[in-house]
Give the backbone structure.
Amino acid sequence: MSVRAVNDLQTSIDQLARTLESIDAAMSGAYDKALNDAIPYAPSGYTIYQLRGNAQKEAQRLLDILTDRYGLPRYELTGIAFAGDLGFGRAALVPKCTTNAGQVETSFVISINEILFLRHYEDFLYIYIPHEVAHIATCLRGGFPIERGETLHAAAHGEEWLQSMKDLGFTEPETHIFHNLDMSPVYEYKLDMGKRLKEVF
Ligand SMILES: [Zn+2]
């Protein structure tokens, strides 16, 4: 390789590194703005880290209730993954597990949309976190069957999940399959990120 070629290559690498940095800055800038806009809706007097910690503690507390009840070993949640967009308008999710796949997922991380979490903190603590924990408890009990023609979503919120929700004290769990949160702050965040990224290129 000639010295010239090496220099050209180095220039390209430097440019790529700068572009990646700009992409990173655009993405984190949009996320920071979305969180800053959301924080006035969260309970005052707490840092974002304390609120995240509360979510984690509550998830573990609820899961301990269920594993205890079902005579299962305690399952320690590794943490909650917070993100600005989980796709498909989702507020929270856990990895899927099915008995049909032959194997049950062994590592469960709850993902939470942090923009919605800060704006609807109590809904998350009292509805959406229990909802996800009930999925994990179902998986720990061996998963759920998928009937022919049934969607994964319908099967995942079947009898097993409904029972775990009832065991957490929900009298009408079927009303908590879908959320009805205003998604517009999430769409604004995505729009803002798109605009910032456009400026990079
Ligand atoms: Zn669900």
Remarks:
- The longest strand covers residues 80-83.
